[in-house]
């Protein structure tokens, strides 16, 4: 049975961010086109340094990673991706198809390995399997970003092993920021997702201010709450 044959018909990549790391433009464009057909959001980079930088600021869900890259080889990129607090899924797409190459990739933490020449449908199918696994893991009720950990079921938040003393609203806010780690959250989204029905736009600031101070009082959180003028807030890694 092929990989594609076991993917549910309703499986979608809509909303998933796919970073395509490939120095051959024709291959990159083919992969990009097939993922965009699945309504994924795609970004193409052509060298290893750009791959690491893009992973930091764009925070993809899945990386399609070539190994023979300029400026920094793919194995080095993979190793770097596996030391961050937020780690994307990684599918290696390489002409290096010997068992020793695949073993090296899996030892460094890749999720899948596809050898060139390849069928673009297979890449998409394997990405869907990985995306499905990510969705199941995301449904788990413990989330983390930097050194902050949220246990949703227990309604507890920690910096390392130290508990954070939060009000229910502050807890909902922090959980939202951790879940969206590194991504902008607008004031309107904060009101809709974390505050009560009586809240309004300007009522966001006092909650954010108190939450920011509580995070600052705990050394080693590894994060900071950043205000984006006229837009909203973002939880950034320090």
Question: Can you walk me through this structure?
Answer:
By secondary structure, this protein is of the alpha/beta class. It folds into two domains: 4-138, 3-Layer(aba) Sandwich (Rossmann fold); 142-237, Arc Repressor Mutant, subunit A (Orthogonal Bundle), CATH 1.10.10.10. It is 39% helix and 22% strand. The strands form three sheets. A five-stranded parallel beta sheet has the order 2-1-3-4-5, with helices on both faces. It has a four-stranded antiparallel beta sheet with strand order 6-7-8-9, with helices on one face. Helix 1 (25-37) crosses helix 5, helix 2 packs parallel to helix 3 and helix 6 (168-179) crosses helix 8. The relative contact order is 0.11.
For this entry, give a set of tags.
12 strands, Rossmann fold, alpha/beta, 22% strand, Arc Repressor Mutant, subunit A, four-stranded antiparallel beta sheet, five-stranded parallel beta sheet, disordered N terminus, 238 residues, single chain, 2 domains, 39% helix
Write the layout of secondary structure elements.
Elements: E1 17-21, H1 25-37, E2 41-45, H2 48-58, E3 62-65, H3 74-81, E4 89-94, H4 99-108, E5 112-115, H5 120-138, E6 142-145, E7 148-151, E8 156-159, E9 162-163, H6 168-179, E10 185-186, H7 187-194, H8 204-216, E11 223-228, E12 232-237
Parallel strand pairs: 1-2, 1-3, 3-4, 4-5
Antiparallel strand pairs: 6-7, 7-8, 8-9, 10-12, 11-12
Helix pairs in contact: 1-5, 2-3, 6-8
């Amino acid at each position: 049975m092929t990989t594609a044959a076991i993917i549910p018909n309703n499986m979608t990549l809509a909303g998933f961010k796919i970073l395509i790391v490939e120095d051959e433009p024709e291959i990159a464009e083919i992969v990009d086109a097939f993922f965009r057909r699945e309504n994924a959001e795609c970004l193409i980079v052509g060298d290893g340094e750009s791959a690491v930088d893009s992973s930091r600021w764009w925070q993809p869900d899945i990386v399609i990673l070539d190994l023979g890259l300029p400026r920094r080889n793919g194995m080095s990129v993979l190793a770097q991706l596996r030391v961050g607090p937020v780690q994307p899924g990684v599918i290696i797409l390489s002409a290096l198809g010997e068992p020793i190459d695949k073993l090296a990739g899996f030892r460094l933490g890749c999720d899948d390995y596809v050898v060139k020449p390849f069928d673009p449908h297979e890449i998409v199918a394997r990405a869907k399997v990985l995306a499905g696994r990510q969705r199941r893991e995301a449904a788990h009720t413990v989330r983390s970003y930097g050194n902050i950990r949220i246990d949703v079921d227990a309604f507890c938040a920690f910096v390392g092993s130290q508990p954070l003393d939060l009000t229910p609203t502050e807890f909902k806010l922090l959980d939202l920021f951790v879940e969206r780690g590194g991504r902008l959250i607008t004031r309107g989204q904060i009101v809709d997702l974390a505050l009560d029905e009586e809240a309004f736009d300007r009522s966001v600031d006092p909650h954010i201010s108190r939450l920011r101070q509580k995070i600052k009082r705990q050394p080693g959180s590894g994060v900071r709450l950043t205000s984006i003028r006229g837009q909203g807030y973002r939880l950034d890694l320090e």
